[in-house]
Write a structure and sequence with these properties.
Length: 578
Amino acid sequence: MMRSLFSGVAGLKTHQTKMDVIGNNIANVNTVAYKSSSITFSELMSQTTQKASGPNATTGTGGTNARQIGLGVRTGAINVDITSQGASQSTGNPFDIMITGENFFVVSNGTDNFFTRDGSFYVDGAGNLAMTSTGYNVMGWGVDPETMDIKRDSVTALRIMSSANMTYPPEATSKAYVAGILDKNDKNVVSANGKAINLNFYDSLGYSYTAKLIFKQSQNPSEYSVELEKILDSTGQEIDTTGVTFGATTLQEKKTAFNFDNDSYKWVGSELRDINDNVLVNVNQLVDGTPGEFKGKDELTSVPKPGSNPAEYYTVGESMDMIAAAYGFEGSTEEFFNLYFVTDANTVPVTRQTVQQILQANTFPNLLTADTTAGFEADGRFFTGGNVAFDPDNGEFAGMGGNATNSTLTLSFNGLPEFGNFSDIEIDFSECSMFDNKGTSTLGATSGDFDGIGAGRRLGDMIGVSVQKNGMIYASYDNGMTKLLGQLATANFANASGLEKAGDNLYSATLNSGEFDGIGVDVTANGGYMSTGQLEMSNVDLSAEFTEMITTQRGFQANSRIITVSDTLLEELTNLKR
Protein backbone atom coordinates (compact mmCIF):
# COMPACT_ATOMS: atom_id res chain seq x y z
CA MET A 1 0.00 0.00 0.00
CA MET A 2 2.85 2.38 0.78
CA ARG A 3 4.39 1.80 -2.66
CA SER A 4 1.47 3.38 -4.47
CA LEU A 5 1.70 6.44 -2.23
CA PHE A 6 5.34 6.99 -3.11
CA SER A 7 4.67 6.31 -6.79
CA GLY A 8 2.00 9.01 -6.70
CA VAL A 9 4.38 11.42 -4.99
CA ALA A 10 7.07 10.70 -7.62
CA GLY A 11 4.50 11.29 -10.36
CA LEU A 12 3.50 14.62 -8.82
CA LYS A 13 7.13 15.73 -8.59
CA THR A 14 8.02 14.83 -12.17
CA HIS A 15 4.87 16.44 -13.58
CA GLN A 16 5.62 19.53 -11.55
CA THR A 17 9.12 19.58 -13.07
CA LYS A 18 7.58 19.28 -16.54
CA MET A 19 5.25 22.15 -15.69
CA ASP A 20 8.28 24.20 -14.65
CA VAL A 21 9.90 23.52 -18.02
CA ILE A 22 6.73 24.47 -19.88
CA GLY A 23 6.34 27.60 -17.78
CA ASN A 24 9.93 28.65 -18.54
CA ASN A 25 9.37 28.12 -22.27
CA ILE A 26 6.22 30.25 -22.24
CA ALA A 27 7.92 32.92 -20.14
CA ASN A 28 10.66 33.18 -22.80
CA VAL A 29 8.35 33.18 -25.79
CA ASN A 30 9.68 36.66 -26.74
CA THR A 31 13.28 36.24 -25.57
CA VAL A 32 15.79 36.86 -28.36
CA ALA A 33 17.19 33.58 -29.73
CA TYR A 34 15.75 31.55 -26.84
CA LYS A 35 15.75 27.79 -27.47
CA SER A 36 12.83 25.84 -26.01
CA SER A 37 13.34 22.89 -23.68
CA SER A 38 11.45 19.62 -23.43
CA ILE A 39 11.41 16.96 -20.72
CA THR A 40 11.19 13.19 -20.96
CA PHE A 41 10.27 10.81 -18.14
CA SER A 42 11.80 7.49 -17.28
CA GLU A 43 10.67 4.74 -14.91
CA LEU A 44 12.31 5.15 -11.54
CA MET A 45 12.93 1.53 -10.51
CA SER A 46 11.01 -1.75 -9.91
CA GLN A 47 10.80 -4.13 -6.96
CA THR A 48 11.17 -7.75 -8.13
CA THR A 49 9.06 -10.16 -6.08
CA GLN A 50 9.83 -13.15 -8.26
CA LYS A 51 12.46 -13.57 -10.91
CA ALA A 52 11.69 -15.07 -14.28
CA SER A 53 12.11 -18.84 -14.74
CA GLY A 54 12.63 -20.87 -17.84
CA PRO A 55 10.68 -23.90 -19.12
CA ASN A 56 11.49 -27.29 -17.55
CA ALA A 57 11.77 -30.05 -20.12
CA THR A 58 11.96 -32.72 -17.47
CA THR A 59 8.70 -31.89 -15.71
CA GLY A 60 7.09 -30.45 -18.78
CA THR A 61 6.25 -27.12 -17.11
CA GLY A 62 6.62 -23.81 -18.80
CA GLY A 63 8.59 -20.78 -17.68
CA THR A 64 7.23 -17.83 -15.77
CA ASN A 65 7.90 -14.11 -16.22
CA ALA A 66 9.38 -12.00 -13.51
CA ARG A 67 7.04 -10.31 -11.12
CA GLN A 68 8.01 -6.63 -10.67
CA ILE A 69 6.24 -3.74 -9.07
CA GLY A 70 7.24 -0.25 -10.28
CA LEU A 71 8.13 2.32 -7.65
CA GLY A 72 7.40 5.53 -9.58
CA VAL A 73 8.80 7.90 -12.20
CA ARG A 74 11.68 10.30 -12.47
CA THR A 75 12.96 12.96 -14.89
CA GLY A 76 14.82 11.15 -17.66
CA ALA A 77 16.25 14.15 -19.57
CA ILE A 78 15.64 17.82 -20.25
CA ASN A 79 16.58 18.55 -23.86
CA VAL A 80 17.13 21.94 -25.46
CA ASP A 81 15.94 22.34 -29.06
CA ILE A 82 19.10 24.27 -29.81
CA THR A 83 19.40 23.49 -33.51
CA SER A 84 15.90 24.64 -34.43
CA GLN A 85 15.99 28.05 -36.13
CA GLY A 86 13.81 30.77 -34.69
CA ALA A 87 11.87 33.16 -36.89
CA SER A 88 13.49 36.47 -37.90
CA GLN A 89 12.47 39.83 -36.48
CA SER A 90 13.35 42.94 -38.48
CA THR A 91 14.80 45.79 -36.42
CA GLY A 92 16.58 48.01 -38.94
CA ASN A 93 19.57 48.30 -36.60
CA PRO A 94 22.76 47.48 -38.56
CA PHE A 95 24.33 45.98 -35.43
CA ASP A 96 21.46 43.52 -34.91
CA ILE A 97 22.70 40.34 -36.55
CA MET A 98 21.03 36.97 -37.03
CA ILE A 99 22.82 33.72 -37.80
CA THR A 100 21.10 31.31 -40.15
CA GLY A 101 22.58 27.89 -39.52
CA GLU A 102 23.89 26.05 -36.46
CA ASN A 103 26.79 28.32 -35.49
CA PHE A 104 27.09 30.60 -32.45
CA PHE A 105 28.52 34.05 -31.85
CA VAL A 106 31.55 34.11 -29.56
CA VAL A 107 31.54 36.69 -26.74
CA SER A 108 33.87 37.25 -23.84
CA ASN A 109 33.71 38.82 -20.38
CA GLY A 110 37.44 39.42 -20.49
CA THR A 111 38.28 36.05 -18.97
CA ASP A 112 36.06 33.34 -20.44
CA ASN A 113 34.47 32.81 -23.81
CA PHE A 114 30.73 32.25 -24.06
CA PHE A 115 28.49 31.39 -26.97
CA THR A 116 25.17 32.89 -27.98
CA ARG A 117 22.63 33.17 -30.72
CA ASP A 118 21.60 36.59 -29.44
CA GLY A 119 22.96 39.01 -32.03
CA SER A 120 21.76 42.23 -30.40
CA PHE A 121 25.01 44.22 -30.43
CA TYR A 122 26.14 47.83 -30.08
CA VAL A 123 29.40 49.81 -30.11
CA ASP A 124 30.58 50.76 -26.63
CA GLY A 125 32.55 53.80 -25.53
CA ALA A 126 35.85 52.16 -26.39
CA GLY A 127 34.71 51.41 -29.94
CA ASN A 128 34.26 47.68 -29.29
CA LEU A 129 31.35 45.65 -30.62
CA ALA A 130 29.52 44.34 -27.53
CA MET A 131 26.31 42.61 -26.40
CA THR A 132 23.58 45.04 -25.43
CA SER A 133 22.40 42.87 -22.52
CA THR A 134 25.70 42.07 -20.80
CA GLY A 135 28.30 44.34 -22.39
CA TYR A 136 30.44 41.31 -23.20
CA ASN A 137 32.81 41.91 -26.12
CA VAL A 138 31.94 40.26 -29.42
CA MET A 139 34.92 38.25 -30.62
CA GLY A 140 36.30 37.92 -34.10
CA TRP A 141 39.37 38.18 -36.28
CA GLY A 142 41.38 41.29 -37.05
CA VAL A 143 42.96 42.53 -40.28
CA ASP A 144 46.58 41.86 -41.17
CA PRO A 145 48.11 45.36 -41.61
CA GLU A 146 50.41 44.14 -44.37
CA THR A 147 47.99 42.24 -46.59
CA MET A 148 44.79 43.96 -45.39
CA ASP A 149 43.14 40.54 -45.35
CA ILE A 150 41.49 38.80 -42.42
CA LYS A 151 44.03 37.09 -40.16
CA ARG A 152 42.33 33.98 -38.77
CA ASP A 153 44.06 33.54 -35.44
CA SER A 154 42.86 33.39 -31.84
CA VAL A 155 39.69 35.46 -31.53
CA THR A 156 39.98 38.95 -30.07
CA ALA A 157 37.57 41.76 -29.28
CA LEU A 158 36.43 43.58 -32.42
CA ARG A 159 37.34 47.24 -32.02
CA ILE A 160 35.68 48.67 -35.08
CA MET A 161 35.40 52.31 -34.02
CA SER A 162 39.06 53.00 -33.21
CA SER A 163 40.50 56.39 -34.07
CA ALA A 164 42.43 54.79 -36.94
CA ASN A 165 39.19 53.53 -38.47
CA MET A 166 37.23 56.78 -38.19
CA THR A 167 38.98 58.29 -41.22
CA TYR A 168 40.39 56.97 -44.50
CA PRO A 169 43.77 58.45 -45.49
CA PRO A 170 44.06 60.62 -48.61
CA GLU A 171 46.02 59.54 -51.66
CA ALA A 172 47.63 61.42 -54.51
CA THR A 173 46.25 60.92 -58.00
CA SER A 174 48.63 58.89 -60.19
CA LYS A 175 46.52 58.00 -63.23
CA ALA A 176 43.87 59.62 -65.40
CA TYR A 177 42.32 59.29 -68.82
CA VAL A 178 40.66 61.50 -71.40
CA ALA A 179 37.75 60.06 -73.34
CA GLY A 180 35.04 61.27 -75.66
CA ILE A 181 34.54 62.76 -79.09
CA LEU A 182 36.62 65.61 -80.51
CA ASP A 183 34.48 67.08 -83.30
CA LYS A 184 36.66 69.01 -85.78
CA ASN A 185 33.72 71.33 -86.48
CA ASP A 186 33.41 72.34 -82.84
CA LYS A 187 33.84 76.14 -82.69
CA ASN A 188 35.93 75.83 -79.55
CA VAL A 189 38.31 73.39 -81.19
CA VAL A 190 39.04 75.62 -84.19
CA SER A 191 39.25 78.85 -82.16
CA ALA A 192 42.54 80.41 -81.09
CA ASN A 193 41.88 79.47 -77.47
CA GLY A 194 41.16 75.82 -78.27
CA LYS A 195 38.93 73.28 -76.52
CA ALA A 196 39.42 73.28 -72.74
CA ILE A 197 38.75 70.37 -70.39
CA ASN A 198 39.35 70.07 -66.65
CA LEU A 199 41.12 67.25 -64.84
CA ASN A 200 40.45 67.15 -61.10
CA PHE A 201 43.14 65.47 -59.01
CA TYR A 202 44.46 65.23 -55.44
CA ASP A 203 47.83 65.52 -53.76
CA SER A 204 48.95 63.15 -51.01
CA LEU A 205 47.47 65.40 -48.32
CA GLY A 206 44.02 65.22 -49.87
CA TYR A 207 43.95 68.75 -51.29
CA SER A 208 42.15 69.00 -54.60
CA TYR A 209 43.41 70.71 -57.75
CA THR A 210 42.15 71.29 -61.26
CA ALA A 211 44.41 71.06 -64.28
CA LYS A 212 43.06 72.84 -67.36
CA LEU A 213 44.09 71.06 -70.56
CA ILE A 214 43.71 72.68 -73.98
CA PHE A 215 43.20 70.93 -77.33
CA LYS A 216 44.12 72.98 -80.43
CA GLN A 217 43.75 72.00 -84.07
CA SER A 218 46.88 71.63 -86.20
CA GLN A 219 47.39 72.28 -89.88
CA ASN A 220 46.64 68.60 -90.27
CA PRO A 221 42.88 68.27 -89.45
CA SER A 222 43.51 64.82 -87.93
CA GLU A 223 46.07 66.02 -85.39
CA TYR A 224 45.56 68.14 -82.30
CA SER A 225 47.89 69.54 -79.71
CA VAL A 226 47.12 68.96 -76.02
CA GLU A 227 48.84 71.19 -73.49
CA LEU A 228 48.58 72.38 -69.92
CA GLU A 229 47.18 75.88 -69.60
CA LYS A 230 47.08 76.28 -65.83
CA ILE A 231 46.43 74.55 -62.50
CA LEU A 232 43.97 75.86 -59.91
CA ASP A 233 43.89 74.92 -56.24
CA SER A 234 40.73 74.09 -54.29
CA THR A 235 40.06 77.81 -53.68
CA GLY A 236 40.19 78.61 -57.40
CA GLN A 237 43.56 80.35 -57.17
CA GLU A 238 46.07 79.68 -59.92
CA ILE A 239 49.28 78.05 -58.66
CA ASP A 240 52.76 78.65 -60.04
CA THR A 241 53.39 75.93 -62.61
CA THR A 242 57.00 76.87 -63.32
CA GLY A 243 58.14 73.51 -61.97
CA VAL A 244 55.34 71.51 -63.60
CA THR A 245 55.96 69.70 -66.86
CA PHE A 246 53.43 68.13 -69.18
CA GLY A 247 54.78 66.12 -72.05
CA ALA A 248 57.77 67.61 -73.87
CA THR A 249 58.58 70.48 -76.18
CA THR A 250 56.56 69.62 -79.26
CA LEU A 251 56.23 71.03 -82.76
CA GLN A 252 52.82 71.86 -84.21
CA GLU A 253 52.40 72.90 -87.79
CA LYS A 254 49.73 75.55 -87.98
CA LYS A 255 49.62 78.71 -90.06
CA THR A 256 49.03 81.70 -87.78
CA ALA A 257 48.40 85.17 -89.21
CA PHE A 258 49.15 88.29 -87.21
CA ASN A 259 49.90 92.03 -87.81
CA PHE A 260 52.17 94.65 -86.30
CA ASP A 261 50.24 97.57 -84.75
CA ASN A 262 51.78 100.46 -86.69
CA ASP A 263 49.32 102.91 -85.15
CA SER A 264 50.62 102.36 -81.62
CA TYR A 265 54.15 100.98 -81.94
CA LYS A 266 57.27 101.27 -84.11
CA TRP A 267 60.69 99.68 -84.25
CA VAL A 268 63.80 101.84 -84.23
CA GLY A 269 66.71 99.48 -84.48
CA SER A 270 66.53 97.20 -81.45
CA GLU A 271 64.08 99.51 -79.65
CA LEU A 272 60.32 99.21 -79.58
CA ARG A 273 58.77 102.66 -79.18
CA ASP A 274 55.25 103.98 -78.76
CA ILE A 275 53.67 106.55 -81.04
CA ASN A 276 55.13 109.37 -78.91
CA ASP A 277 58.64 108.02 -79.49
CA ASN A 278 58.97 106.78 -75.91
CA VAL A 279 61.31 103.80 -75.70
CA LEU A 280 59.40 100.81 -74.34
CA VAL A 281 61.76 97.92 -75.02
CA ASN A 282 65.41 97.55 -75.86
CA VAL A 283 65.83 94.00 -77.11
CA ASN A 284 69.55 94.04 -76.36
CA GLN A 285 68.75 94.39 -72.64
CA LEU A 286 66.63 91.26 -72.65
CA VAL A 287 69.46 88.96 -73.69
CA ASP A 288 71.95 87.73 -71.10
CA GLY A 289 74.32 86.02 -73.51
CA THR A 290 72.86 82.53 -73.09
CA PRO A 291 71.87 81.21 -76.55
CA GLY A 292 68.14 80.75 -76.91
CA GLU A 293 67.14 82.39 -73.64
CA PHE A 294 66.11 85.75 -72.25
CA LYS A 295 66.94 86.99 -68.81
CA GLY A 296 64.63 86.18 -65.92
CA LYS A 297 61.20 87.77 -66.30
CA ASP A 298 61.51 89.63 -63.00
CA GLU A 299 64.88 91.23 -63.80
CA LEU A 300 64.81 94.98 -64.39
CA THR A 301 65.93 96.62 -67.61
CA SER A 302 67.37 100.12 -67.83
CA VAL A 303 64.37 101.35 -69.81
CA PRO A 304 62.36 103.75 -67.60
CA LYS A 305 58.60 103.82 -67.64
CA PRO A 306 57.42 107.05 -69.33
CA GLY A 307 56.37 109.74 -66.86
CA SER A 308 57.57 107.88 -63.74
CA ASN A 309 59.21 110.10 -61.10
CA PRO A 310 61.29 108.83 -59.46
CA ALA A 311 62.10 106.61 -62.39
CA GLU A 312 60.60 103.11 -62.47
CA TYR A 313 61.99 100.56 -64.90
CA TYR A 314 60.36 97.89 -67.01
CA THR A 315 61.09 94.27 -66.20
CA VAL A 316 62.05 91.69 -68.81
CA GLY A 317 58.61 90.12 -68.48
CA GLU A 318 56.84 93.44 -69.02
CA SER A 319 59.04 94.09 -72.07
CA MET A 320 58.08 90.72 -73.56
CA ASP A 321 54.41 91.48 -72.90
CA MET A 322 54.66 94.76 -74.79
CA ILE A 323 56.33 93.12 -77.77
CA ALA A 324 53.57 90.49 -77.90
CA ALA A 325 50.90 93.19 -77.60
CA ALA A 326 52.43 95.08 -80.50
CA TYR A 327 51.72 92.06 -82.70
CA GLY A 328 48.18 91.48 -81.43
CA PHE A 329 49.04 88.83 -78.80
CA GLU A 330 48.20 90.83 -75.71
CA GLY A 331 47.71 88.39 -72.84
CA SER A 332 49.29 85.55 -74.88
CA THR A 333 52.97 86.40 -74.61
CA GLU A 334 54.21 82.82 -74.35
CA GLU A 335 52.13 81.80 -77.36
CA PHE A 336 53.64 84.62 -79.42
CA PHE A 337 57.27 83.89 -78.58
CA ASN A 338 56.80 80.20 -79.38
CA LEU A 339 55.62 80.90 -82.94
CA TYR A 340 58.16 79.79 -85.52
CA PHE A 341 59.01 80.53 -89.14
CA VAL A 342 60.62 78.24 -91.70
CA THR A 343 63.68 80.33 -92.51
CA ASP A 344 65.26 78.02 -95.08
CA ALA A 345 62.93 75.42 -96.55
CA ASN A 346 65.67 74.13 -98.86
CA THR A 347 67.90 72.79 -96.11
CA VAL A 348 67.66 69.35 -94.61
CA PRO A 349 66.64 69.34 -91.87
CA VAL A 350 64.39 72.35 -92.30
CA THR A 351 65.48 75.29 -90.10
CA ARG A 352 62.83 76.76 -87.84
CA GLN A 353 63.37 79.97 -85.88
CA THR A 354 60.99 81.21 -83.23
CA VAL A 355 60.08 84.83 -82.68
CA GLN A 356 62.20 84.70 -79.52
CA GLN A 357 65.25 83.47 -81.41
CA ILE A 358 64.83 86.18 -84.04
CA LEU A 359 64.65 88.86 -81.36
CA GLN A 360 67.60 87.42 -79.46
CA ALA A 361 69.71 87.43 -82.63
CA ASN A 362 68.75 91.09 -83.03
CA THR A 363 68.00 90.44 -86.70
CA PHE A 364 64.90 92.10 -88.04
CA PRO A 365 63.94 90.95 -91.50
CA ASN A 366 60.63 91.97 -92.97
CA LEU A 367 59.02 90.13 -90.08
CA LEU A 368 59.76 92.84 -87.54
CA THR A 369 60.69 96.03 -89.43
CA ALA A 370 58.87 99.17 -88.46
CA ASP A 371 57.82 100.14 -91.99
CA THR A 372 56.10 96.84 -92.73
CA THR A 373 52.32 97.16 -92.90
CA ALA A 374 51.54 93.77 -94.43
CA GLY A 375 50.38 90.91 -92.23
CA PHE A 376 52.67 88.08 -91.15
CA GLU A 377 52.06 84.40 -91.11
CA ALA A 378 53.90 81.99 -88.83
CA ASP A 379 54.37 78.42 -90.00
CA GLY A 380 53.66 76.84 -86.64
CA ARG A 381 54.50 76.92 -82.99
CA PHE A 382 56.37 75.11 -80.28
CA PHE A 383 54.51 74.10 -77.17
CA THR A 384 54.94 71.85 -74.15
CA GLY A 385 52.62 68.88 -74.36
CA GLY A 386 51.88 66.35 -77.06
CA ASN A 387 50.12 65.80 -80.37
CA VAL A 388 47.06 63.56 -80.40
CA ALA A 389 46.58 61.89 -83.77
CA PHE A 390 43.44 60.32 -85.23
CA ASP A 391 42.99 57.99 -88.16
CA PRO A 392 41.44 60.18 -90.91
CA ASP A 393 39.60 57.18 -92.35
CA ASN A 394 37.76 55.95 -89.26
CA GLY A 395 38.28 58.70 -86.65
CA GLU A 396 39.82 56.33 -84.12
CA PHE A 397 42.75 57.26 -81.88
CA ALA A 398 46.02 56.75 -83.78
CA GLY A 399 48.71 57.49 -81.18
CA MET A 400 50.68 60.32 -79.61
CA GLY A 401 53.38 62.32 -81.36
CA GLY A 402 53.45 60.09 -84.39
CA ASN A 403 53.89 56.93 -82.32
CA ALA A 404 50.90 54.63 -82.80
CA THR A 405 51.81 52.56 -79.73
CA ASN A 406 52.01 55.53 -77.38
CA SER A 407 48.79 56.75 -75.78
CA THR A 408 49.90 58.62 -72.65
CA LEU A 409 51.38 61.89 -71.45
CA THR A 410 52.73 62.48 -67.95
CA LEU A 411 51.92 65.48 -65.80
CA SER A 412 55.02 65.77 -63.61
CA PHE A 413 55.44 67.85 -60.45
CA ASN A 414 59.10 67.11 -59.71
CA GLY A 415 60.02 70.75 -60.22
CA LEU A 416 57.68 72.06 -57.53
CA PRO A 417 59.18 72.84 -54.09
CA GLU A 418 56.45 70.71 -52.52
CA PHE A 419 56.63 68.01 -55.22
CA GLY A 420 56.69 65.33 -52.50
CA ASN A 421 52.98 65.98 -51.94
CA PHE A 422 52.19 65.04 -55.54
CA SER A 423 52.47 61.96 -57.67
CA ASP A 424 53.20 62.14 -61.37
CA ILE A 425 49.95 61.63 -63.26
CA GLU A 426 49.97 59.40 -66.32
CA ILE A 427 47.12 60.50 -68.59
CA ASP A 428 45.78 58.07 -71.20
CA PHE A 429 44.19 59.45 -74.40
CA SER A 430 43.44 56.14 -76.13
CA GLU A 431 39.67 56.48 -75.65
CA CYS A 432 39.48 59.73 -77.62
CA SER A 433 37.91 59.68 -81.07
CA MET A 434 37.22 62.16 -83.88
CA PHE A 435 33.67 61.77 -85.16
CA ASP A 436 30.97 64.06 -86.45
CA ASN A 437 28.87 64.94 -83.40
CA LYS A 438 26.97 67.90 -84.90
CA GLY A 439 29.64 70.37 -83.88
CA THR A 440 29.77 69.32 -80.23
CA SER A 441 32.78 67.76 -78.55
CA THR A 442 32.26 65.48 -75.57
CA LEU A 443 35.85 65.20 -74.37
CA GLY A 444 36.24 64.85 -70.63
CA ALA A 445 39.05 63.99 -68.21
CA THR A 446 38.59 61.48 -65.38
CA SER A 447 41.03 60.74 -62.59
CA GLY A 448 42.08 57.10 -62.25
CA ASP A 449 42.55 54.49 -64.94
CA PHE A 450 39.68 52.72 -66.67
CA ASP A 451 39.20 50.55 -63.57
CA GLY A 452 39.28 53.53 -61.20
CA ILE A 453 42.76 52.69 -59.89
CA GLY A 454 45.05 55.63 -59.12
CA ALA A 455 42.21 58.17 -58.94
CA GLY A 456 43.44 59.62 -55.66
CA ARG A 457 41.15 60.83 -52.93
CA ARG A 458 40.67 63.34 -50.15
CA LEU A 459 40.54 62.47 -46.48
CA GLY A 460 37.39 60.44 -45.82
CA ASP A 461 35.19 60.42 -42.71
CA MET A 462 33.36 57.25 -41.74
CA ILE A 463 29.69 57.43 -42.67
CA GLY A 464 28.55 53.86 -42.12
CA VAL A 465 29.39 50.31 -41.10
CA SER A 466 28.01 47.19 -42.75
CA VAL A 467 28.28 43.48 -41.97
CA GLN A 468 28.45 41.04 -44.88
CA LYS A 469 26.87 37.58 -44.96
CA ASN A 470 30.20 36.02 -44.06
CA GLY A 471 30.56 38.26 -41.01
CA MET A 472 33.11 40.63 -42.54
CA ILE A 473 32.69 44.18 -41.25
CA TYR A 474 33.30 47.04 -43.65
CA ALA A 475 33.35 50.77 -43.01
CA SER A 476 32.29 53.20 -45.74
CA TYR A 477 33.70 56.72 -46.00
CA ASP A 478 32.49 59.92 -47.62
CA ASN A 479 35.38 59.86 -50.09
CA GLY A 480 33.90 56.76 -51.69
CA MET A 481 36.27 54.27 -50.09
CA THR A 482 35.54 51.19 -47.99
CA LYS A 483 37.76 49.49 -45.44
CA LEU A 484 37.73 45.99 -43.97
CA LEU A 485 37.62 46.31 -40.17
CA GLY A 486 37.42 42.66 -39.13
CA GLN A 487 35.26 39.56 -39.26
CA LEU A 488 32.86 38.06 -36.77
CA ALA A 489 34.04 34.62 -35.72
CA THR A 490 31.58 31.84 -34.94
CA ALA A 491 31.75 28.57 -33.03
CA ASN A 492 30.39 25.22 -34.14
CA PHE A 493 29.97 22.20 -31.88
CA ALA A 494 29.62 18.51 -32.66
CA ASN A 495 26.84 18.30 -30.06
CA ALA A 496 25.34 21.74 -29.62
CA SER A 497 22.68 20.29 -27.31
CA GLY A 498 25.49 19.53 -24.89
CA LEU A 499 26.11 23.24 -24.26
CA GLU A 500 25.30 24.44 -20.76
CA LYS A 501 23.09 27.48 -20.23
CA ALA A 502 24.94 30.26 -18.42
CA GLY A 503 22.11 32.82 -18.24
CA ASP A 504 21.63 36.01 -20.26
CA ASN A 505 21.17 34.00 -23.46
CA LEU A 506 24.69 32.60 -23.07
CA TYR A 507 26.02 29.06 -23.26
CA SER A 508 29.22 27.47 -22.00
CA ALA A 509 31.09 24.60 -23.60
CA THR A 510 31.03 21.25 -21.79
CA LEU A 511 32.78 17.92 -22.22
CA ASN A 512 29.73 16.59 -24.05
CA SER A 513 29.40 19.55 -26.42
CA GLY A 514 33.02 19.61 -27.48
CA GLU A 515 35.64 22.22 -26.66
CA PHE A 516 36.05 25.58 -28.39
CA ASP A 517 39.48 25.76 -30.06
CA GLY A 518 39.89 29.51 -29.45
CA ILE A 519 39.91 30.34 -33.17
CA GLY A 520 36.43 29.57 -34.42
CA VAL A 521 35.12 29.10 -37.94
CA ASP A 522 33.76 31.20 -40.77
CA VAL A 523 29.97 31.13 -40.57
CA THR A 524 29.74 30.22 -44.26
CA ALA A 525 31.94 27.13 -43.83
CA ASN A 526 28.88 25.10 -42.79
CA GLY A 527 26.46 26.71 -45.21
CA GLY A 528 25.30 29.38 -42.76
CA TYR A 529 25.23 33.14 -43.16
CA MET A 530 24.55 36.34 -41.24
CA SER A 531 21.76 38.87 -41.81
CA THR A 532 21.96 42.42 -40.51
CA GLY A 533 19.05 44.45 -39.21
CA GLN A 534 17.40 41.25 -37.95
CA LEU A 535 17.29 39.22 -34.75
CA GLU A 536 16.46 35.59 -34.26
CA MET A 537 13.24 35.15 -32.26
CA SER A 538 12.44 32.45 -29.73
CA ASN A 539 11.64 29.05 -31.22
CA VAL A 540 8.95 28.35 -28.59
CA ASP A 541 5.78 26.94 -30.19
CA LEU A 542 2.89 28.13 -28.01
CA SER A 543 0.41 25.66 -29.47
CA ALA A 544 2.71 22.78 -28.58
CA GLU A 545 3.38 24.22 -25.12
CA PHE A 546 -0.33 24.59 -24.32
CA THR A 547 -0.96 21.02 -25.48
CA GLU A 548 1.85 19.81 -23.25
CA MET A 549 0.37 21.85 -20.43
CA ILE A 550 -2.98 20.04 -20.78
CA THR A 551 -1.37 16.57 -20.71
CA THR A 552 0.80 17.60 -17.77
CA GLN A 553 -2.23 18.82 -15.86
CA ARG A 554 -4.08 15.53 -16.48
CA GLY A 555 -1.04 13.55 -15.39
CA PHE A 556 -0.71 15.59 -12.22
CA GLN A 557 -4.41 15.12 -11.44
CA ALA A 558 -4.18 11.34 -12.03
CA ASN A 559 -1.19 11.04 -9.70
CA SER A 560 -2.97 13.02 -7.03
CA ARG A 561 -5.86 10.55 -7.30
CA ILE A 562 -3.44 7.69 -6.64
CA ILE A 563 -2.55 9.32 -3.34
CA THR A 564 -6.14 10.00 -2.32
CA VAL A 565 -7.31 6.47 -3.25
CA SER A 566 -4.35 4.90 -1.46
CA ASP A 567 -5.17 6.98 1.59
CA THR A 568 -8.77 5.75 1.45
CA LEU A 569 -7.59 2.15 1.31
CA LEU A 570 -5.31 2.71 4.28
CA GLU A 571 -8.20 4.25 6.14
CA GLU A 572 -10.33 1.18 5.44
CA LEU A 573 -7.47 -0.99 6.66
CA THR A 574 -7.23 0.86 9.96
CA ASN A 575 -11.01 0.58 10.39
CA LEU A 576 -10.87 -3.23 10.40
CA LYS A 577 -10.13 -3.24 14.17
CA ARG A 578 -13.47 -1.74 15.07
